[in-house]
Amino acid sequence: MANLRPRRPLRGPRLTRRQIAARLQWAREHQEWLLPQWRNVVFTDEVRFGLVSGDRRIRVWREPGHDQRLNLARELVPYQGGSIMFWGGIMFNQRSPLIQIQGTMTAEIYEENVIQPIIQPLRNEFGNNFIFMDDNARPLRARRVEPALEMGQIVRLPWPANSPDMNPMKTFGTL
User: Fold this and answer.
1) What is the pLDDT at residue 31?
2) Interval 23-37 mean pLDDT
3) In 96-130, which positions are buried (b, 16+ CB within 10 angstroms) versus exposed (e)?
4) Is 45 exposed, middle or buried (0-12, 13-18, 19+ CB in 10 A)?
5) The CA-based dihedral angle spanning residues 24, 26, 31, 37, taken in that order and rounded to the nearest 10 degrees
6) Distance between CA atoms of residues 45 and 121, nearest Å
7) Please, is 64 exposed, middle or buried when counting C-beta atoms within 10 Å of its C-beta (0-12, 13-18, 19+)?
8) Is 1 a domain residue?
9) Alpha-carbon gap, residue 20 to 161, rounded angstroms
10) Considering only CA atoms, which of 158, 149, 88, 92 is closest in space to residue 123?
11) pLDDT over 90 (residue 120)
12) Residue 109 domain-assigned (yes or no)
């Protein structure tokens, strides 16, 4: 018991029975996929970097009773002091260009800056075997985006709700 220390608990989304079943079904449907099938998948994600950390994990060392030292105070900066967003994709042996997104990702920005100039040419290069994986963010699933994907014959890999762990981009984005 001497090695026990208080730790922050792991955090994750609360999953409904339906979401758990969808994750399990996804895993069963794709567990037999071989490397040639996964080579046709482009995994994509967007990330926003703030100029100021907003995670409140910064720690300071101070003596008991000296809580009010101004040089130890952390200023609160609204909206992380400004931020910048990027979108990118990875495939088996290549990667997409890194696209800077001005402002907030909207369906219009997604279609005009990602689907048309990046995803459609990749689909043309890979042919009918091309599979596109994005996440369930609202702008990426908006009604405006669907016709562009259908017209370009772009097939999406299903993405169960609350399942960021299925996309390797999520893992690499935390490094």
Assistant:
1) 94
2) 93
3) beebebeeebebebbbebbbeebbbebbeebeeeb
4) buried
5) -170
6) 18
7) exposed
8) no
9) 9
10) 149
11) yes
12) yes
Report which DSSP code applies to 8.
Answer: P
- pLDDT, one tens digit per residue, over 95-119 is 999 999 988 899 999 999 999 999 9
| Whether 54 contacts 80, CB under 8 Å | yes
Number of domains in the chain: 1
| CATH classification of the domain holding 100 | 3.30.420.10
User: What's the gap between Cα 145 and its chain centre?
Assistant: 18
What single-letter amino acid sits at 56?
R
Place of tokens 């219009």: 108
pLDDT at 175 (0 to 100): 43
- What range defines the domain where residue 166 resides? 31-173
In tens, the pLDDT along 128-137 reads 999 999 888 8
Secondary structure of residue 128 in the 3-state scheme: helix
Q: Is residue 12 part of a domain?
A: no
The arithmetic mean of pLDDT across residues 43-63, rounded, is 72
Distance of alpha carbon 23 from alpha carbon 20, whole angstroms = 5
In a domain, 78, yes or no: yes
